[in-house]
Design goal:
- It is a single chain.
- The chain is of the alpha/beta class and about 300 residues long.
- It has two domains: about 260 residues, Rossmann fold, CATH 3.40.50; about 30 residues.
- About 50% of the residues lie in helices and about 10% in strands.
- The protein is built from twelve helices and six strands.
Length: about 300
């Protein structure tokens, strides 16, 4: 279903060749919202099974240009999930403590346990996106033996190895790039200026970053091509229409959880016999009238 958006290393991603505004999978807005709503029950049930089974964890990476809709997508698509075993990790500019460690140090601390889902709002990819565009690594303290000309190339290799390590150790990763056009981004920035309820979202730095648009597009293209694998694929989702973007993301996450196929743990016959013993013990502690009343209610 998502072949047109999925990149697993078998084909090259060309950012200037894909549409940011198509709605091929569901052209009707109301229908897309209905489908997304229908996905919620399945997502909730699968998440409960994942949490109960505790065999595998899931990381959902959301990357995008500013104003593409990361926060809104996380809110609208994943609001149906239980807060038990689900959390968001937002990776902003690294702190002095984080900069004192390797760049994956802060990421490792947010890796989910088996049974948990972690939503990465930005991620380790910031170090090959803004880190690459702004050449931040040149300003960071490093050993004299480090060849700064090879840092980005090395990071692609390290990220592939890191994600393979997680996959081999029971943590699935689904990586989603919300692909918004430059024109649509401008419209959304204008809305933040012109609509009072959105004023708090506006930052002059966001607009200033637009001068690096082409460099960021190249950085996203390179990052996806260098790190897309069969086990840890990228999905490039058209983001000019928020309703469509959110619907597609819900389908991608649902498809991933279905593939993981979590199940509630089976109860052994021996365990069921223990349940019956406990049941009889509890029944003795309940007054007969109360017990009868409870049965009638049922």
């Amino acid at each position: 279903m998502f072949k047109q958006y999925r990149y697993d290393g078998s084909s090259k991603f060309r950012i200037n060749k894909v549409s940011t505004s198509e709605t091929d999978l569901c052209p009707d807005k109301d229908r897309a919202k209905e489908k997304m709503k229908a996905n919620e029950d399945e997502l909730d049930e699968l998440q409960q099974k994942l949490y109960a089974e505790k065999k595998e964890g899931l990381i959902i990476v959301i990357q995008a240009m500013d104003a593409a809709g990361k926060d809104g997508t996380i809110t609208h698509v994943l609001q149906c999930l239980s807060p038990h075993g689900v959390y968001e990790a937002a990776f902003k500019s690294p702190t002095s403590t984080e900069l004192a460690h390797d760049y994956l140090w802060r990421i490792v601390q947010k890796v989910p346990a088996k049974g948990e889902i972690a939503i990465f709002n930005r991620s380790h990819y910031e170090d090959v996106l803004i880190g690459k565009v702004k050449k931040l690594y040149e300003k960071q303290v490093h050993a004299d033996r480090i060849d700064t000309d090879k840092i980005i190339e090395n990071r692609y290799e390290e990220i592939r190895a890191f994600e393979k390590y997680l996959y081999n150790n029971n943590v699935r990763i689904v990586k989603i790039f919300l692909n918004v056009s430059k024109e649509e981004q401008a419209e959304r920035f204008l809305a933040r200026i012109e609509e009072p309820e959105k004023n708090w979202k506006f930052s002059a730095s966001d607009v200033e970053e637009r001068q690096y648009w082409d460099a960021y597009q190249e950085a996203f293209e390179d990052a996806i091509n260098e790190t897309a694998t069969e086990e840890c694929p990228w999905y490039v989702v058209p983001a000019d229409h928020k309703w469509y973007m959110r619907y597609v993301v819900s389908e991608i996450i649902l498809d991933t959880l279905k593939d993981m196929d979590p199940k509630f743990p089976e109860v052994t016959p021996e365990r069921l016999e223990e349940f019956e013993e406990w049941r009889q013990m509890l029944l003795k502690e309940i007054p007969e009238k109360k017990s009868k009343k409870n049965k009638e209610k049922k």
